[in-house]
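User: Show me a protein chain along with its predicted structure.
Assistant: Here is one chain, sequence first, then structure tokens.
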Amino acid sequence: MHITPIIEIAQQAGQCILSFWRRSITVSLKADRSPVTAADQAAHQVIEQGLRQVTPALPILSEEGPLIGWAQRKQWTSYWLVDPLDGTKDFLQGRAEFTVNIALIDQHMPILSVMYAPAVDKLYYAIQGQGAYLQQGQTSAQPVHVCESVSAKPRIASSRFHPNCALQSMLTQLGEHQLIIAGSSLKFGLIAEGLADVYLRFGPTCEWDTAAGQCILEAAGGQVVDFNQQPLRYNQQASLINPHFLACGDASQRWCAMAAGSTT
């Protein structure tokens, strides 16, 4: 499959989101108390319409789309997994750290993805086996690769909205480190670029939060695994909630053991 039309869909959705950014808009709360806005919903419409034109036979599972039951989903072998606006809290606070995430899942694995940060015109994309790429603005896309060795002062990517006692415990164990605060899926992108070493997530996330970033990071030479060192996989059960996980560039580090120890 060609990735160009998927990039164009993500960019169109991003421009749609920017028409709402830093303006007064109504905010609603979902059942899980997370915010949703007209920007989320408008971006969903752009992406859904675009994907249905490109791949009319493939199902679409989107955070802002209808809830599709397990009885139907478990029949899927390939489908699109979409977060139309990842980082709604950053978006609402006027920060630029939000993304459009589109991933193609095949046999429970993300094999193609686009992650676009429209406010800074930063585009990541990847196809399994073909590497990961970053295009900044109007410059040509360049391949990206993780940093394969961690410095004496590890660079830890973290969210400003999800402080966690287990994370603090691990950071204490780790000793001297550099904390890099970043919103949305951009934490995966920082590791893929070699600008951060690890992102540890102890709190709940949904499958659409991680699939695009995982594909990009894996194509850049990194990994996204649960604390048992198993790669995240998709649409394997009724729940769409991920286990705790970590994303890293250097798999030789004992991140999993440290993370698991922090939760006990």
